[in-house]
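Technical appendix A lists one of the benchmark inputs used to test multi-chain prediction within the project. The record comprises two sequence entries:
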Amino acid sequence: MTLIEILLAIYIGILIFLAVTSIYFLGVKFFKTGSDRLEIVQNGRVSLDRLTRELRQTQEITTFLPATKDEPGNPPPSEIQFQDGHQEETLQYFRYYLNGAELWKQTILYYFAGEPDVYVNWNAIDIGGNPPSSTITEKIVGEYFSSLQFYGETPVAIEASLAKNQVSTEIRTIIYGRNTQ
Amino acid sequence: MLKQTSKNNKGLTVIEAIAAISILLICVLGLINIFPWSLQISKSAETKTIATNLAQEKIEEIISIDYTEIGVGVIESRHSLGTDSDDPFYKYERLTEATYVDGDLEDSVTDTGMKKIIVTVYWSTQLAGDETVQMAYLISQF
């Protein structure tokens, strides 16, 4: 082997190495974009599934919702509170709200201090005209939300935007409460 | 002590080297095409999720109205679900049809107290071209 041959071999080797590493990093980038998209789509889908499942059964939505998305002076709220329609024994309410980019779900029990074991309606008042006390437990449902909107009285429209890094998605559906009065 | 066992000691020729490198290059270029393809697959899955929810949306709207107020035939002609091209739902189009069905779920000419609602959502993706998702729902009078 001459020196020229060795130099040529090293040069070609470096070229191939650079090509392979750039393809590797390209692969990593594409994989990341793909998994980010799957993650936001999954978060949107699961959150909407849970919301529609529970709103379908509810008897009462306690959050005031505008009739349309662009009602002047009355923007759609990013939270919703409604009665749990899956349970008949315990009167309890769910509240979905955005905490930064995360969707949280609260379970709320209303009661009066005199009778802490009797759960009452969210808008109940005692003899003195005072609102009830409440105990709240909460848990996270979804993440990567950039916006969440509820509008329309019944059926209720849910519209969500989600974003992670460079990818974003929007998802929308409408749900009719079968038990809503 | 070393003994020449073969007379072929020329090593690789330039032609062979070029052939090897070009084969490698073709393989690698073929591999690169997989990346955008995988992105299109995840994009296609995303549009299918969105379209399914948009189909469900129409079904919920129809459930909310009274049986007698639901027409038969094309209830809502095929139209875009966005107001303008900036709207994320602009590329989805939806067609809603209803028919009377009998006890065997066969189409019926007369009202037998049951209607079948068919919602079709149309859109197109780079990967698969025109795609549709269809949902059917039965609504009874009683």
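DSSP finds one helix and eight strands in chain A. Residues 3-57 of chain A form the longest helix (55 residues). Comparable benchmark entries are summarised in Table A2.
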